[in-house]
């Protein structure tokens, strides 16, 4: 399987280079909207090979794009409509922000030794020094990682280049596991993890809810004002909240990976499948913001890609009744769980435990069953 990472390079551009990059971004944005209109007029073209013959020459003549830039515009627009069709929402795609994509060795190259890169613009290629965080250095210098596409992103203080790097790794297999780690995700506890020895790791979410409540109060106050400065501040608040939750989910995912590696030499992580959970659950009006804004999917994405990088397989199992089923006797009933007190008590055998830990244990056992089913099917 292919492991992909994105590294951010801060570009140290001169005023002249900044002007050239801004001109390229504007032309590229206008070209994207032009190609989008053509694709939409032809029924929402989602195939690159169909869109390119219709737009390539006009993109070069009308907007002055270089050859590879025009090809990347066609690819970006076709991908956008392919995604819209898969979601069942075919509308005219309007690109309000520039999305200038570069292809490695065609319109950009990197020289890690000198920390410089070469970028294509409308007029010429420019050589730009860059800064990169220490965390990203191994991806640039290790020969196992190869460069992919890159995206030029304007920032408040200049420009950054988001570069994708990738390498091939062997896909981890669950049949080789000697430890199963069940992970239950929630809001009062961001995650509860337990292994085959019933060791437990809790990640409390109360402080996270309090922090998000602060953002909610700020948004309400700014929305009541409705001034231009208030609207600018709203965007900043939204950005801070997103960065805050992203950082929290990274920390939780890292701790889960560490817990899994301490549980066995070849661990396997088991997650509940939360696909369409918000569509199938009735949520009280006062709780809807917390439920629908909670980043369950992002946390799962982080756990998966970090696990694969460590050679740890991840299984998905059904989430149905995971916090209502007794792991001792198997009795399943809604009355077993007291959500307000976060307690589980089986009405049949009277086994008691934290309700989220019950969920994690049931998820772990379902992972064991699924691994066995996979082995039988493979045999």
UniProtKB/TrEMBL annotation:
<dbReference type="InterPro" id="IPR010095">
    <property type="entry name" value="Cas12f1-like_TNB"/>
</dbReference>
<dbReference type="GO" id="GO:0032196">
    <property type="term" value="P:transposition"/>
</dbReference>
<dbReference type="Pfam" id="PF01385">
    <property type="entry name" value="OrfB_IS605"/>
</dbReference>
<dbReference type="GO" id="GO:0003677">
    <property type="term" value="F:DNA binding"/>
</dbReference>
<protein>
    <recommendedName>
        <fullName>Transposase</fullName>
    </recommendedName>
</protein>
<feature type="domain" description="Probable transposase IS891/IS1136/IS1341">
    <location>
        <begin position="179"/>
        <end position="259"/>
    </location>
</feature>
<keyword id="KW-0233">DNA recombination</keyword>
<feature type="domain" description="Cas12f1-like TNB">
    <location>
        <begin position="296"/>
        <end position="363"/>
    </location>
</feature>
<keyword id="KW-0238">DNA-binding</keyword>
<dbReference type="Pfam" id="PF07282">
    <property type="entry name" value="Cas12f1-like_TNB"/>
</dbReference>
<dbReference type="InterPro" id="IPR001959">
    <property type="entry name" value="Transposase"/>
</dbReference>
<comment type="similarity">
    <text>In the C-terminal section; belongs to the transposase 35 family.</text>
</comment>
<dbReference type="GO" id="GO:0006310">
    <property type="term" value="P:DNA recombination"/>
</dbReference>
<keyword id="KW-0815">Transposition</keyword>
């Amino acid at each position: 399987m292919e492991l992909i990472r994105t590294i951010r390079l801060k570009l140290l551009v001169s005023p002249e280079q900044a002007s050239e990059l801004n001109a390229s971004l504007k032309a590229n944005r206008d070209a994207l909207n032009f190609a989008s209109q053509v694709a939409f007029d032809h029924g929402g073209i989602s195939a690159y090979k169909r869109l390119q013959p219709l737009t390539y020459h006009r993109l070069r003549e009308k907007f002055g794009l270089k050859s590879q830039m025009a090809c990347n515009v066609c690819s970006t627009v076709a991908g956008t409509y392919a995604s819209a069709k898969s979601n069942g929402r075919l509308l005219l795609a309007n690109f309000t922000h520039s999305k200038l994509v570069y292809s490695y060795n065609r319109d950009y190259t990197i020289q890690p030794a000198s920390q410089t890169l070469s970028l294509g613009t409308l007029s010429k290629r420019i050589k730009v020094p860059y800064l990169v965080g220490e965390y990203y250095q191994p991806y640039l210098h290790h020969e196992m990682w190869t460069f992919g596409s890159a995206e030029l992103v304007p920032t408040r203080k200049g420009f950054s280049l988001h570069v994708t790097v990738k390498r091939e790794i062997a896909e981890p297999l669950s049949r080789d596991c000697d430890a199963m780690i069940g992970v239950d995700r929630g809001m009062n506890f961001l995650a509860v993890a337990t292994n085959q020895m019933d060791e437990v790791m809790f990640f409390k979410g109360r402080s996270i809810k309090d922090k998000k409540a602060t953002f909610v109060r700020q948004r309400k106050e700014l929305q009541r004002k409705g001034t231009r400065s208030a609207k600018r501040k709203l965007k900043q608040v939204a950005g801070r909240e997103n960065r805050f939750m992203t950082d929290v989910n990274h920390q939780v995912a890292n701790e889960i990976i560490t817990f899994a590696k301490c549980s066995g030499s070849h661990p396997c992580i088991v997650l509940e499948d939360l696909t369409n959970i918000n569509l199938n659950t009735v949520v009280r009006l006062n709780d809807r913001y917390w439920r629908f804004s909670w980043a369950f999917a992002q946390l799962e994405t982080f756990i998966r890609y970090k696990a694969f990088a460590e050679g740890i397989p991840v299984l998905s199992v059904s989430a149905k009744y995971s916090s209502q089923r007794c792991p001792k006797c198997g009795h399943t009933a809604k009355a077993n769980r007291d959500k307000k007190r976060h307690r589980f008590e089986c009405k049949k055998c009277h086994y008691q435990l934290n309700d989220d830990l019950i969920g994690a244990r049931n998820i772990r056992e379902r992972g064991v069953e699924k691994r066995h089913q996979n082995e039988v099917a493979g045999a």
